[in-house]
């Protein structure tokens, strides 16, 4: 019955489904843009070969953090039972400039001999040497830098010898240099120690052992370090995210409620006729609930498909913007829309439920 009521007027049903889908798409895209930004910020950590990250005591992130470790920390970490290798990296934030502009950047210095801290993937060029750097390909396009060109990092001129991928977000990019070059540009220090574990070693046990035996450090598994990084980015953007999400959600829920309530009101006379013929109110409510379920499921399918299409197309026009559409986000958005839709669609039935059948029929004529 609910299916027949929904598709009795296919044009109206199509408009209702598209209206709900547009609302769901707004919510999915707003959430997806933020999720994509978090994915980009944590990309280097998530794709690192390190199982454990060691930092200065109390420092649990790279973003908006400063970590300085003694020069012998990598050797001390490597001596811990369960540790297969330990590689130092240096980290600082600054700016990178090219012929076509300037961007905020993270500068990462690493040992190019072991390549433990190098970019996840080079899309062009090679590993940097003295006076050279690897720049993220998206930033290179925006700055007008080609392989072999000179560009400026934190006031120092370097030659681009390669391009990496996955290191640019809405707010910043990433530049990789060798450790000695980092010392010339910024200072001679160890910021973090990337640590690989022996096969079968328990990461939690090794992190506890590192903190206890090395001293003055904080050790986290790759997952813990990425989660800490994601949380600080979320906290920094919490107010803006809450405002954007609230506005989008209110608009979406208002459209959903109005569309599904109107769909029920347009069929109120049909429900009255059914009650006059003997249908009970629970049966009518079940028909409305099925109508809402079909509408929301169809709308969610359309919205998810459109969101995935935007997630593929938008980076082509704006490479720094990434939309991440997750199953959890789709499920949460669909469930919220379903609850609001049920309340809005079932609300008009109270008029019929409170009347006898004959009166209900007359009331709707």
Secondary-structure topology with pairs:
Layout: H1 2-7, H2 10-41, H3 43-46, E1 52-56, H4 73-78, E2 83-98, E3 101-110, E4 122-125, E5 132-136, H5 137-143, E6 150-153, E7 156-164, E8 173-178, H6 179-185, E9 192-197, H7 203-214, E10 217-221, H8 222-236, H9 238-266, H10 268-276, H11 281-317, H12 327-346, H13 350-353, H14 357-363
Shape: elongated
Low-confidence stretches: none
Number of self-contained structural domains: 2
Proportion of residues in β-strands: 15-25%
Q: What is the CA-atom radius of gyration, in angstroms? A: 28 Å
Total helices: the number is: 14
Category from helices, strands and their pairing: alpha+beta
Strand order across the biggest sheet? 2-3-8-5-7-6
Description:
By secondary structure, the protein is an alpha+beta fold. The chain folds into 2 domains: 2-41 and 237-363, no CATH class; 58-215, no CATH class. 53% of the residues lie in helices and 19% in strands. It contains 14 helices and 10 strands. Strands 2-3-8-5-7-6 form a 6-stranded mixed barrel. Strand 6 (150-153) and strand 7 (156-164) form a beta hairpin. Helix 2 (10-41) runs antiparallel to helix 9 (238-266) and helix 2 packs antiparallel against helix 12. The chain starts with a helix and ends with a helix. The model has no long low-confidence stretch (mean pLDDT 83).
């Amino acid at each position: 019955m609910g299916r027949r009521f929904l598709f009795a007027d296919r044009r109206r049903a199509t408009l209702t489904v598209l209206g709900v889908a547009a609302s769901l798409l707004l919510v999915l895209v707003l959430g997806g843009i933020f999720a994509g930004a978090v994915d980009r910020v944590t990309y280097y950590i998530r794709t690192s070969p390190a199982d454990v990250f060691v930092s200065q005591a109390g420092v649990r992130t790279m973003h908006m953090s400063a970590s300085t470790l003694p020069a012998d920390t990598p050797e001390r970490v490597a001596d811990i039972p369960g540790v297969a290798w330990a590689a130092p990296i240096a980290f600082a934030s600054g700016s990178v400039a090219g012929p076509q502009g300037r961007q905020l950047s993270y500068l990462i210095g690493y040992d190019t001999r072991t390549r433990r801290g190098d970019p996840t993937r080079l899309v062009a060029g090679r590993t940097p040497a003295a006076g050279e750097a690897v720049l993220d390909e998206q930033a290179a396009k925006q700055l007008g830098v080609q392989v072999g060109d000179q560009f400026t990092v934190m006031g120092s001129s370097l030659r681009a010898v390669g391009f990496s991928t996955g290191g640019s977000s809405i707010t910043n990019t990433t530049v990789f240099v060798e450790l000695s070059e980092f010392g010339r540009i910024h200072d001679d220090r160890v910021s973090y120690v990337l640590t690989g574990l022996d096969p079968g070693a328990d990461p939690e046990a090794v992190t506890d052992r590192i903190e206890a035996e090395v001293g003055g450090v904080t050790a986290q598994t790759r997952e813990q370090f990425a989660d800490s990084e994601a949380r600080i980015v979320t906290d920094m953007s919490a107010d803006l995210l809450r405002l954007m999400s609230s506005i989008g959600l209110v608009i979406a829920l208002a459209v959903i409620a109005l569309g599904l309530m109107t769909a029920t009101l347009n069929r109120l006379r049909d429900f009255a006729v059914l009650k006059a013929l003997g249908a009970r109110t629970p049966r009518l409510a079940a028909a409305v609930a099925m109508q809402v379920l079909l509408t929301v499921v169809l709308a969610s399918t359309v919205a998810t498909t459109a969101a995935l299409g935007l997630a593929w197309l938008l980076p082509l026009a704006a490479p720094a913007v990434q939309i991440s559409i997750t199953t959890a986000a789709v499920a949460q958005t669909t469930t919220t829309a379903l609850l609001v839709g049920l309340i809005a669609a079932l609300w008009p039935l109270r008029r019929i439920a409170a009347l006898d059948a004959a009166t209900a029929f007359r009331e709707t004529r």
